[in-house]
Amino acid sequence: MPATVGVVVFPGSNCEHDVVESVEALGGQGRLLWHGDADVGDVDAVVIPGGFAHGDYLRPGAIARFSPMMSAVTDFAASGGPVVGICNGFQVLTEAGLLPGALQKNAGLKFLCQPATIEVLVTNTALTGNATRGQKLSIPINHFEGNYTCTPDTLAELRAEDRIVFTYSDNPNGSTANIAGICNARRNVVGLMPHPERASNQLLGSDDGNVLLGSLLDAASQ
Amino acid sequence: MTDALHRELGLTDDELARIIEILGREPNHVELAMYSVMWSEHCSYKSSRIHLKRLPTEADHVLVGPGENAGVIDAGDGIAVALRIESHNHPSYIEPYQGAATGVGGIIRDIFTMGARPIAIMDPLRFGPLDDPRSRWVAEGVVSGVSGYGNSVGVPNVGGETVFDETYKGNPLVNVFCLGVLPTERLVLGQASGTGNLAILLGSTTGRDGIGGVSVLASAGFSDDEADADKRPSVQVGDPFEEKRLIEACLQLLDEGLVVGIQDLGGAGLCCAASETASRGGVGMDFDVTAVPRREEGMEPYEVMTSESQERMLAIVEPGEADRVLEICEKWEVLATVVGKVTEGGSLRIVDGLDGPVVGEVPASSLHDDAPLYDRPRAEPADLSEARADLADDALEAPPDMAAALLSLVHDASWVYSQYDHQLFLNTVVGPGSDAAVLRLKHPTTGVDTGRGLALTTDGNHRWCAVDPYVGTVMTVAESVLNLACVGARPQALVNCLNFGNPEHPEVMWQLSQAVDGMTEACEAFDLPVVGGNVSLYNESGGSNIDPTPIVGVVGLVDDLSTVPPGMSWADGDRLVMLGPPSSWLSGSKWAFDSGHRRGSLRPVDLELHIRVTNLVRALVVSGGVSAVHDISTGGLGGALVEMAIASGVGCTVARVGGHGELFSEGPSRVVAAIRPDHLPAVEAAAGDLGVPLTRLGLAHGDAIAVKGLVDVPLAAARSAWERCLPDALGAGTTIG
Fold this sequence. Notes:
Chain A has 222 residues and is α/β, with parallel strands linked by helices. Chain A has five helices and eleven strands, in the order E-H-E-E-H-E-H-E-E-E-E-H-E-E-E-H. In chain B, the strands form five sheets. A seven-stranded mixed sheet of chain B has the order 8-10-7-11-9-12-13. A seven-stranded mixed sheet of chain B has the order 23-25-22-26-24-27-28, with helices on both faces.
């Protein structure tokens, strides 16, 4: 029985089909979840994909967090279900309070679509179970607001609890402590700016994202 | 009716007389406004149609040729490909961000109007020189606009060109190419049929933005800054989030088979959409102008009909399907309003309420079919023979610093394309910065990967065309075809965007006619149908016309995309060869132009040889016979070597380059190929079999770019100059002019 991954679609999302395609290429099952519905159904994991939910108007994720589906995702996360936010999805998770901190505009004040090398710092999360500590992955970034920021207290807490999941090897956007991705205390909710689904096939330049999506499928099957 | 009004709207006295003849009476304001936008140069192609007819448009795989919203070809496996290119030059000079953004929005609507999901954009851009602050402001704004709109609307931007030259200082070019895929059986056309069917307006509310955009702005040149600033209200404002929802709603309507016809609202707004759908379907329409949702109070009917407010579509729907249409639109938060009804006869009636009084009535087809057709005077420049005899080869000395001259000819465009999402949809196998982009070809509804690929390129060269618009255009099409060969693709179809100056100048019409003839010759030689195009005239400023700039977008097919094409990166130890005829001809080259020599002549292209070169290159790419390949174009042989060395991180040692002529010449039909030593005999034999000249150049090796007797520059220095060009210049500050 393959794990079913629910992929949330807001108006303005655009990476939902890419996530479904790459998850299904690894043997999982993808299912789109409409933002206006209030139930995740019987999915085994949830991905909030990249894009521009509600046009990123006001602030990325600021409107999306009020969708009925986000209440359902919050409940799903509270029950221990794996939840991953990629790019805009990470922004939504911070706005929804499922992850601490915020994503502000890139230091160079430009949108950046380019390859990035990230390092896996911890492996006991919903997205990194099959990776190794210190593993370097080549995974593209594609964002204007990817510059992670948080209070010194939050940073200290993230460090103390080993919740910085990924760091950039060559910080492209000014993120605090080179942070590319973090998780919650329970380690079932992970947000990251790079797009693992875009590194899912050698034809696309890298398949390093598959170790992460494969980890998610394994976490979802447990 | 005062005769001042029609002139204010951009109509001539003769055109007004013609309208009176059609109607059998004086037009009222709304009618006059509709004719003025529909008969504008931008909408009617009244100066260029007579020439465009010469282009070859037919082939077995062409499903829709010119005249519809986009050309469509059959790509096999039940997949059709829709493509189109358009300009948004004038708005982008006045208001760079919104001008470029709405250019992206408009071309995307043209593609999904055909029932296709837009999957790729490319943007050929032309700006004034980098040392001009206003040009930097325009460049920065345009790139931000393309980025801001394209990324948000969710269509990847997979390539293009960025050229800076004096000729575009007062008139930049912002062309946008878009490609989409659809299941072949879902092809829809922008036509109304079925008396009693409803016209439903989808998307944004209608405001006063962009009124007269096509007539006032796009169909006249620029004169002075103050008057140009006054045109700013004619530039529309884009909302990519509205467009994204509109795309998803329309594709769902098409998936469920709910529409009879659909048409986007672009130039000339509702007037164009209503009259085009009606006249294509051979029917009439009652259009309820009061039903149109507005964003401003007190709009007159003529304003509603000609507004160019963005992100709107007009769908023709059977009455029984209307409820489901409205339901889908509600899901996607897209406003949908019944605004008209298909009628018998051919009248477009503007009514105040569907049973209310008629405020305007014209034969729908007269707005298109009766548009004026001008055979404007053409004349070659008076000094043509003198200009052609003045060859750059004779006029220019070798540069004192050959390495600096060489490095000034090429730049890294990643400052531009790193601001664009070029990977969405997981198709991009070869992205921007390459000879051609290559996308995986997946079925648009089932997602099944065909294992084949689409290759896309856009090309244009104003320098070649300034020297000789005929040969320059032949060379442009030839370059496209060779670019596709470099990624292993066979060319399938071409769309063009013809950017020229003021058509009332006989020299400009001569340039246009020559370019069309050159394109015709090249396309016929390559069996390449022209499936659509756009003509942008009045690209002039301060009385000076831009260099003629025909830009082409060509799509090709890669038959087996199981491996990534070789690209530009060679490996240490590769043998370097040039395939194709040696050339030292300098007129029309970037080096000659940058040295201040902007005339001379071009040598005719040997099209038969060009075909053999492209066949050889494609065969070598497909068979893995080359480890790297790059076409020789802007910057010549030297430019190609620099770009390949930088891409590889490995230098080269090259001999047998006779002088600066051979280094900088942009003579056609040539590539640099890097070949593993053990493959070299087979490549030489293949070239010999096809009668393609092969010149051994040298070796990929070391950490310098060394061309014996001419250039010896450390690779690191070359890379630094190449990388820093755009960021340094554009980081130097801008001005709002």
